[in-house]
Amino acid sequence: MSYSLLSGQEPTITVSEDQIKEIGEEAVFNCTVENLSPEWSIVWMMFGKDNRGDSTPVVLNDRLVLTDNRMTLVSSNQSSTYTASIKIKDLQESDTGFYSCRALKKAHEKVSADIELQIRRPATIKSTAVFANVTEGSLVELKCEADGYPVPQITWKRHDDLLFPSGGAIYRGNVMRIDNVHRDDRGVYYCTATNGVGPVATYNITLVVSFAPNVMAVRPRVGQTIGEAIDLECQIEAHPAPNVTWFKDNVELKKEKSHSQKDVFVDSLKRYSVTQSDFGIYVCRAENSLGKSETKIELFRCVKNFHPDRFW
């Protein structure tokens, strides 16, 4: 309940306490105006919960001016005292706001007192983004905006209960901030909003981290006999997907293009029938818009009974 006096001390207003209600219940607002002289009029106004400038007239003196069959008015004006009770049945979320009982004078003098009505509302999440794309090393803020009454509590979790960069499996607050994002931070983040009214609200956002390639040889040295097939393999981690090329003696080798949609994959160079000229050092190189990386693999000749899969 609030009280304000803009000019003069003639009328005094007393109203009932602020109220918190459930949807479907009823609310009763009482207002008593004392020391009321004939030049003063009584007006009830309703203001939206988010915009005090958005007003709706409800009562003028002793009659309802708002058409709503859920609403009734009981009022009396005896001598210098005005009393009124407004009852609203079957409360809805749209009834949330401030109900202001006002004494007005032609000279724009005003005395008013407000009653706040809060309707318990289940938590709802207003966020709409489902992806966040950032570059490794930058700052990222994942936001989860929720509405409801009481004010919802917001928590975050990662997919598969992975730990947050700050440590711990749960983060509390509507903004989840990572100051120096790393590729290991990529993945799905789940936001949960709850206020004890209705079901829990959930929302998820996928963090996509772009980074330069990192290339490693699956086996740095591989042995094979002449006439046999062999696969040379390198493991690549990168986002966005890199262009992968293979070289031997500074000459680019022809091979089928790799089309992996994953950030981590294995690219291979196949030799179906090894010849003497195939032995030597091979380079596997990956490059995207953020940089490049390469590794070397040696293919060497071995005897007929040698098992290359056992060599490390």
UniProtKB/TrEMBL annotation:
<dbReference type="InterPro" id="IPR007110">
    <property type="entry name" value="Ig-like_dom"/>
</dbReference>
<dbReference type="Pfam" id="PF13927">
    <property type="entry name" value="Ig_3"/>
</dbReference>
<keyword id="KW-1015">Disulfide bond</keyword>
<feature type="domain" description="Ig-like">
    <location>
        <begin position="213"/>
        <end position="298"/>
    </location>
</feature>
<dbReference type="InterPro" id="IPR003599">
    <property type="entry name" value="Ig_sub"/>
</dbReference>
<dbReference type="InterPro" id="IPR051170">
    <property type="entry name" value="Neural/epithelial_adhesion"/>
</dbReference>
<keyword id="KW-0677">Repeat</keyword>
<dbReference type="InterPro" id="IPR036179">
    <property type="entry name" value="Ig-like_dom_sf"/>
</dbReference>
<keyword id="KW-0472">Membrane</keyword>
<dbReference type="Pfam" id="PF07679">
    <property type="entry name" value="I-set"/>
</dbReference>
<keyword id="KW-0732">Signal</keyword>
<keyword id="KW-1003">Cell membrane</keyword>
<dbReference type="InterPro" id="IPR013783">
    <property type="entry name" value="Ig-like_fold"/>
</dbReference>
<keyword id="KW-0393">Immunoglobulin domain</keyword>
<dbReference type="GO" id="GO:0043005">
    <property type="term" value="C:neuron projection"/>
</dbReference>
<feature type="domain" description="Ig-like">
    <location>
        <begin position="11"/>
        <end position="112"/>
    </location>
</feature>
<dbReference type="InterPro" id="IPR013098">
    <property type="entry name" value="Ig_I-set"/>
</dbReference>
<feature type="domain" description="Ig-like">
    <location>
        <begin position="122"/>
        <end position="206"/>
    </location>
</feature>
<keyword id="KW-0325">Glycoprotein</keyword>
<protein>
    <recommendedName>
        <fullName>Ig-like domain-containing protein</fullName>
    </recommendedName>
</protein>
<dbReference type="InterPro" id="IPR003598">
    <property type="entry name" value="Ig_sub2"/>
</dbReference>
<dbReference type="GO" id="GO:0005886">
    <property type="term" value="C:plasma membrane"/>
</dbReference>
